[in-house]
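Fill in residues.
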């Protein structure tokens, strides 16, 4: 049973997700990005195209995304692009790992939750297992982009 505080948080999270869906951040294509990948969920049709630019010191300087799909997948992509700027590749992977654990209902340190920032608004998705893949699609795509960039 949800109390008034939980209901307020749910509403706040819903508004944040809808804001990122309606006004996605960082949708510019980054053709010179070193790391690129496309993600697709054949079950629902969600698509994410992600590009990550890294400076000479190994810090993420820009992230771009384009795509189409449900509000969860597209808001997650927008939030991902905001949170990764300024992080090292290792920090990006650790953030992705923390987000994955959050959605599975596994233990997440308070410092990790703080580092997730607005992305934490997506934790309510774990109550709807079918939607977890929607929220994870941009993150899985980002992990693939970073792996392909290492090989290339």
């Amino acid at each position: 049973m949800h109390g008034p505080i939980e209901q307020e948080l749910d509403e706040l999270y819903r508004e944040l997700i809808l804001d990122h869906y309606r006004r996605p951040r960082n949708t510019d294509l980054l053709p010179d990005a070193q790391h690129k990948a496309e993600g697709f969920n054949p079950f629902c049709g969600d698509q994410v195209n992600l590009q990550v630019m890294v400076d000479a010191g190994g810090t993420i300087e820009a992230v771009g995304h384009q795509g189409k799909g449900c509000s969860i997948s597209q808001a997650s992509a927008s939030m991902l692009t905001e949170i990764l700027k300024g992080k090292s590749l290792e920090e990006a992977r650790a953030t992705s790992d923390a987000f994955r654990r959050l959605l599975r209902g596994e233990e997440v340190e308070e410092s990790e939750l703080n580092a997730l920032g607005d992305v934490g608004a997506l934790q309510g998705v774990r109550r709807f297992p079918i939607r977890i893949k929607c929220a994870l699609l941009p993150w899985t795509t980002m992990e693939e982009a970073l792996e392909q960039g290492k090989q290339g």
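The chain has five helices and three strands.
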